[in-house]
Description:
- It contains six helices and 24 strands.
- Among the domains are: 278-424, no CATH class; 436-541, Adenovirus Type 5 Fiber Protein (Receptor Binding Domain).
- The mean pLDDT is 80.
- By secondary structure, it is mostly beta strands.
- The longest helix has 13 residues, at 103-115.
- The termini are far apart.
- Strands 17-18-19-24-21-22-23-20 form an eight-stranded antiparallel β-sheet, with no helix packed on it.
Amino acid sequence: MGIYLSKDGISYLWSKIKNKFYIKPSTGIPKSDLASSVQTSLGKADTALQKHQDISGKVDNTAAGADSLLSKITNNWTATPTDNTYFIRQDTSSKNEFGRVKFSTLWSYIKSKVESLGYTKNTGTITGIKMNGASKGTSGVVDLGTVITAHQDISGKQDKSTAVTHSANTAVGSATKPVYIAANGAATAITHSINSDVPENAKFTDTTYNDATQSAHGLMTAADKKKLDGIAAGATKVAVDSALSATSTNPVQNKAVKAALDSKSASGHTHAMITNSALWVSGANNTAKWVKLGTLVSSGNFSNAMIRVWSGDGANGRANQNSSFEVQIKDGWQSTESATKACGVTVYRVGCSSVKVKVITTAHDTYTVWAYMPWGYWNGNYAVYGKYKSWTSQQLIQSDEPEGTAADTAYYDQAFLTSTVAKATEATTLTDSGWSNVTTYIVDKSKFNNISTEFRRIGQIAWVKCSFTPNVAMTSITICDVTDIDPFVAVTPANSVYGTGSNNAGTENFIANVSYNPDHKLYLRGNFKPSTIYRLMFSYTVT
């Protein structure tokens, strides 16, 4: 039984058969129909040389190949070039094209350029020159040495007539003598030598120096140099005191030592009677009188003045005719100064209980002093000492008590310690405690070269004596508490009491005070100087 194929089956069968055969196109076999290996081989065949193509001895088409080719040209040609001699040139448009050109053509080109500058061939003489486009000459010879081109600006340049001149091969100056240009233009060496390198930016200027002072730098004077030469090697500044001191270790000026020595008494000296402070109380005519002693001006608040009067009933050489009294005037403190309560007065009477004193205040610091002398022949003396501004002696005698309000006044009578004047049956020997040394001081004893203080009580009278030499200047000294003396010596005063002392020469006085309230201490007030001996002795009544 036969099998028949459909149209599609026949198309399929034909495609299978056709793939088994290659039919060459009419335009040739395309490269894409070839196998890949065949395509590679054919690609190499396009550039491959054929056997008949021999390239040995050929030059590469490169710059190196060109250089190699040109280096083969002969270099032994010695013929003189002529106008017809050729040279190789490159095309003017910078193409890689080259050709031959005669030297005559090159010369014609060069000559045309020269002639464009004004040069023409003649008899060997330049007939015209142009420089920078400007004509510099039309005939004759032009000296090019005097021609300056337009770009050469010489404004501000030195003129030839004043230019620096110097002969060649001639040395000027040296390493220590620099050269300057003289007015004639010649190089000239300076007359001074420079012996070391000059610092950078150094300026040579004239400087005027003054003599040195303690506040400004300057030059040393001849006097300074002489003084400096007089100072020993290794010497140092020594402080010299201008006054004596108990604490300083410095040397003292000669004049200070001399002044201190001049105030001292010579060895073996004697003391003349002190008369400078003693004044007369006179005018008695066998009648008791009021006597004006004078006017006192105080030194201000708390200052004390003492007036000591030595008198009595007659002068027939009998001891019972001697009497004395002391007037203490103490300036009072006032918030508003006035004559009212300007001072307080205390009178200490010895053997003269009838004596009266009247101190009349005329201002806050001015007092008139009167004394009533109760005897017929009361002539004597008085002295004023203590701290006061001035005293004016104004003796005036009258019978009546002077007018005026008296300052507050207190009297203290001191009897003779022993008496042989009274009847024998009335004489009494008073109890004497003897002198008792103070052992407990309030003041710092290190401020004294020496100090001693003693108290003594005889009956109702206490005595105090003190000797001291300070080593520093002082104005106030608190000696001791009088209640702290030997318990068997009761020396507490009934009221505050005052006494006076002086230096060893008797020229400087000071005040002593044994206070009563609120304390019971011995105070000293004055201007106490170092290395000066002071002494004190006075008495007062005790409780």
